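Figure-free illustration: sequence to structure, shown twice.
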Amino acid sequence: MGSSSTNPSSETLLKVGVVGFGPFAQFLSRTILKQGHLVTATSRSDHSRLCSELGITFYREMDQFCNANNDVILLCPSILSLSSVMQSLPSNRLEKGTLFVDVLSVKEHPRDLLLNVLPEECDVLCTHPMFGPESGKDGWNGLPLVFDKVRIRNESLCMNFLSIFEKEGCRMVEMSCTEHDKLAARSQFLTHTIGRILSEMKIESTLMDTKGFQTLLQLRDNTMKDSLDLYCGLFKHNKFAKQELENLEGAFHSLKLKLQETQDAK
């Protein structure tokens, strides 16, 4: 594990390596840096200029990144690309005792993949910050961080990393990856589905919008800020999502029947 410094409060500073330096990773990295931790990054796209501005060491080659002696490797790729990212990691170059943390919106998929691919000596922490650059732009206080200590031998390192979110005031929610996916299928996936349905319908603001309709427009706009890849990943890699989609179809059909019955009533 990489050598660490100590801040005035005697808490150990971490060297956090970020894999996949898209908007969400950049959002998290700014707070990690603000707390005094060191950050390195690697990504398929060249983010060397931004990283230089932020004070982050950027590596184009995965081998160099793995040799950077990171305490924590924070996985921030898309759901659909996690498998290929993990296959590109030279496992023989990983430091023993490295803590791997994912921040994907599904949890069973990364849990199973990391346990299967990583050496036994690597710890695994699955997390899902239930916020992003928009909802967390004014701070993280009160926003939930869901986590599951899947395989943790170095409890101190794990708690040190989780303290990043605690210090920002996050509501820490520990639950299993399976329970997360079950709940997320009904909340996150269903929300994204409704938002994309509204987008497909091409609804627009009118001169007589109700507050409820404005809420629907906001839901559509917020949903469409996320990529189609994210939505497809929520469906493909959450085994509970298919059932929620069927539940939605069933509820829609049931409502149509009730309307039809009303129309046909004499």
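We now fold a second protein in the same way, so the two outputs can be compared directly.
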Amino acid sequence: MDPTKPANRGSSERTPLLNGEGSNNTASGATGHRRPTSGSNLKHFFTNARWTPGTEHDNLVVRSAAYTWHVTKVTLLSNYVNFLLVMVPIGIIAGALEWSATAVFTINFFAIIPLAAVLSFATEEISIKLGDALGGLLNATFGNAVELIVSIVALRDGQIEVVQSSMLGSILSNLLLVMGMCFLFGGLAHRGTNGHGSEQVFSAAVAQTTCSLMALSSASLVLPAALYAVMDQNGSNAKRESILVFSRGTAVILLILYVLYLIFQLRTHSNLFDPEAAPTLAAAPAADDETTQTPETEAAAEEEEPVMGPVAALGVLIVVTVLVAICADYLVGSIDDIVASTNMSKAFIGLILLPIVGNAAEHVTAVVVAIRNKMDLAMGVAIGSSIQIALGVTPFLVIVGWIMDKDMTLRFETFQTVSFAVSVLVVTYTVQDGKSNYLEGAMLIGLYTIIAVAFYATPGDAMDTAKGFIFGNS
């Protein structure tokens, strides 16, 4: 979730898994919907994500209990990955009873994935009634809440390398893996006929703007690395202090630029980010355009209303945030033992594994909307989330580290910095024409796989030792 996503999403993202019959016929009530005219109450009680029997009962106790179940049911049916919610209590028990590090890490790893999906859903429910501006700001605040919580917990424990790797990993997974999968599967679904291939189209103006911001964020990592190299070559003894000052000043500037980006996107130039104004498919038959304007699409637009009230959504948001913090605490606490027992580097855990935790649900959503030829929305998920991490979350963590007296800087490990810079360069060349196809998607996925293999092949003590030198007394 990210501020490039409109407050109202469309059935592909916002429609719950199981919709009860007659859910379009709604009126005021506890859930804001009319009672369906057909179907058994038992079926609606368990499967209707728009209405629950008892929410309009005269008895306050019955009405409250029914609405509590309605909120729980709607939350459970909001995403396919929510079947993994059973891992949440198991993960907490595993951490509390001090099971093996592998068990604690694995269980809590899978537990946080559905929690991230629920967090995204609750945020969307609140943002619908706030309008595009406030809704976008809320999305910007909570869009990467899972990554932020995990990183703050790791920062508190002094796992600076894990924090840096997870931030970079989130950016790379969005830029290369998610965008690559969108281009690949969307391109295959809309490839045209042999000899008359077609390409999917998205807003080139938005792509250029976001790629420029990504290039800026890349520079904010390259410059600290270059500064450190110069001071190290000259034998300076003030490398640590200089990098800290440089990183903290740069973090403030990046946060200011991120605020300006939000204003640019949500206020002054919101027309550039309007998917309705962009074409959908280049060189496609006219029949394809007709299929995008079906009664199903129109019905989806009418469904754009919350399925639970803002107070209930806020309650879900608070509960899930607490659960994420607990699971993240156990997850991060097991990393040192995992590294010691498997010789897997912290860089690989942060760069490849942890981004899956916070972004799995969004990754699936991006691919689904790309297959449905909504490339502007798919690009918003991929590039927009990357901008959030690069210009918002990472600088914010530098400031948090400053407050916590932790040496969190923008001086990343050299190979990580090079990987990021190369990835931004490749992505910029790929999206600059505003068109995509499955070959470009395969290229992006290939680059991501190369980077993942490189970090997996690196021994656990190689980059960790270098990092200890950077933040040591040198």
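Summary for the second example: Residues 17 and 77 are 5 Å apart (CA to CA).
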